[in-house]
Amino acid sequence: MTSTVILQAAGGFDPRQLIMFGAIALVFYFFMIRPQLKKAKDHKKLISELKKGDKIVTTAGIHGRIADMNDTTFLIEVEGGVKIRFDKSAVSLDATKATATPAAPKA
User: Fold this and answer.
1) Under a CB-based contact definition with an 8 Å cutoff, are residues 65 and 77 in contact?
2) Model pTM greater than 0.85?
3) Which of 15, 26, 57, 103 has the largest CB neighbor count within 10 A?
4) Domain boundaries, the chain
């Protein structure tokens, strides 16, 4: 009995396990990693296309207009002329383009 358990534990190389690990890695890549890379690339493109005067929404939900820009930050003018400096990574949406595109007609 003990020798049977030891022989089963030693088992050896099973190519089906390698194929399963490879399939899991592919699924993980296509459903987790690839979409995140695409999202990061699109966000970087959005940030690079912003210019002074564009309306934006930050990740904190603050709506404003870009008053000034430098390498890493935006100076955003909000309601009442108040200006707040934000890091470029804090921008989540270009409201200028979002409001310019017409909504799809409802059926």
Assistant:
1) yes
2) no
3) 57
4) 15-49, 51-102
